[in-house]
């Protein structure tokens, strides 16, 4: 098998912070093509590339990951964000945990399986751009082969996760009236009005809790207002990130924010993605769990706090089971000095390889889609 650790290092050293996924796709496409995959890339915007690779003619397992990372300002890091080096058992750099290690594991495992078992391997890889900014690449994809199983290699510390919360991003705006900074009583300060709403939203603690997905959360993310100190600001804009749960829909969340924001605030939906929940009792999920972690003891299913491309891809694929499983450390996602445990990377690659082997062994893959 292609060494997934070295492949992770090569991916981390490519700068795909908020764009330029083309460079990562250019690295991975030849690896998959050499293993016999049919590979297509789509570049709807310069540098923004989706990669879809298909092997086999029967019903596939679909493996997915994103090629972009969030930004990383080198001034807030103690090492180069594009380092890709290994120190004290940790592979270092932006995207090491979220989620270039996961992508490397999927590509290495799928290429190895296709090369060594070409007659009984059925797999589809979907590698996307712009996941971090709202699953933009996944939303642009068409022509995917239907697949009952979707494996997302987001960071789970090699634990099996059966879904995640939904997400709602809202833009709140307030309009006021400008005046000279020395005569604020002549104006209507939009900044002050919206800032008060931001404090109310931030301070509210009574958000619903789901028995499966945990508590809904709300984060006041960005605030923009004003031009210069001696002008009363007549416009202010606030962005809010809400993570929804089955008992608290995006419509419920919108109504709650409207109440907290108060009158005179315009609210616009920017992103609205459903959460994901796979039935832990289904026979298909038991098969997947046994393949990924055959020695894992039974326990309550886990659900992630973050969203993934599964919010978009599960419907496009008609997937009945979504499993999130990857070597990254979820606590390392989006932090400065991001790292990933090296030992977890080959472990995850072997697990994905077992999953692909299990899909072809015993029951014909096509029957599993029924």
Write down the Rg. Answer: 23 Å
Q: What name does CATH use for the topology of the largest domain?
A: Aminopeptidase
The total number of structural domains is: 2
CATH-level-4 superfamily name of the largest domain: Zn peptidases
Number of helices: 9
Given the helix and strand composition, which structural class is it?
Answer: alpha+beta
Oligomer: single chain
CATH architectural group of the largest domain: 3-Layer(aba) Sandwich
Given as residue ranges, the uncertain stretches (5+ residues, pLDDT < 50) are 362-370
Helicity, in percent?
Answer: 25-40%
Query: What is the number of E strands?
Result: 18
Structure description:
A six-stranded mixed β-sheet has the order 1-2-6-3-7-17, sandwiched between helices. It is α+β, with helices and mostly antiparallel strands. It has helices at 4-12, 21-34, 96-116, 136-140, 190-203, 250-261, 283-292, 310-317, 344-360, and strands at residues 38-45, 48-55, 61-66, 86-87, 90-92, 123-128, 149-152, 161-164, 166-175, 209-210, 214-215, 217-225, 235-244, 265-273, 276-277, 302-304, 321-324, 339-341. It has two domains: 4-165 and 275-369, Zn peptidases (Aminopeptidase), CATH 3.40.630; 170-273, Alpha-Beta Plaits, CATH 3.30.70. The protein is 30% helix and 26% strand. β10 (209-210) and β11 (214-215) form a beta hairpin. The longest helix has 21 residues, at 96-116. The model is unreliable at 362-370 (pLDDT under 50). The chain has nine helices and 18 strands.
């Amino acid at each position: 098998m292609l060494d997934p650790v070295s492949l992770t290092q090569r991916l981390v050293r490519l700068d795909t912070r908020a764009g330029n996924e083309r460079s990562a796709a250019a690295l991975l496409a030849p690896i998959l093509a050499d293993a016999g995959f049919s590979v297509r890339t789509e570049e709807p915007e310069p540098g923004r590339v989706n990669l879809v690779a298909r092997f086999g003619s029967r019903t596939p397992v679909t493996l997915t990951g994103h090629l972009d990372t969030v930004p990383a300002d080198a001034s807030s890091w103690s090492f180069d964000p594009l380092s890709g080096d290994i120190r004290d058992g940790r592979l270092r750099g932006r995207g090491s945990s979220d989620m270039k290690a996961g992508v490397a594991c999927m590509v290495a495992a799928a290429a190895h399986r296709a090369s060594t078992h070409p007659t009984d391997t059925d797999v589809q890889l979907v590698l996307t751009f712009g996941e971090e900014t709202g699953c933009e690449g996944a939303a642009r994809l068409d022509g995917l082969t239907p697949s009952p199983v979707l494996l997302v290699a987001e960071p789970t510390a090699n634990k099996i996760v059966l879904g995640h919360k939904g997400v709602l991003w809202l833009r709140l705006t307030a309009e006021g009236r400008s005046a000279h900074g020395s005569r604020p009583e002549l104006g209507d300060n939009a900044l002050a009005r919206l800032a008060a709403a931001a404090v109310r939203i931030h301070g509210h603690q009574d958000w619903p809790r789901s028995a499966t997905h945990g508590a809904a959360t709300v984060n006041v993310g960005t605030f923009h207002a004003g031009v210069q100190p001696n002008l009363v600001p007549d416009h202010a804009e606030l962005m809010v990130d809400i993570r929804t749960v089955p008992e608290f829909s995006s419509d419920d969340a919108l109504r709650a924010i409207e109440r907290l924001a108060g009158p005179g605030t315009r609210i616009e939906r920017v992103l609205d993605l459903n959460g994901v929940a796979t039935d832990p009792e289904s026979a298909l999920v038991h098969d997947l769990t046994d393949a990924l972690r055959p020695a894992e003891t039974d326990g309550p299913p886990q659900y992630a706090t973050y969203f993934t491309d599964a919010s978009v891809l599960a419907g496009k694929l008609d997937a009945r089971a979504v499993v999130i499983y990857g070597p990254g450390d979820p606590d390392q996602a989006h932090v400065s000095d991001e790292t990933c445990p090296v030992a977890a990377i080959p472990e995850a690659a072997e697990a994905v390889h077992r999953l692909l082997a299990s899909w072809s062994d015993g029951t014909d893959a096509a029957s599993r889609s029924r």
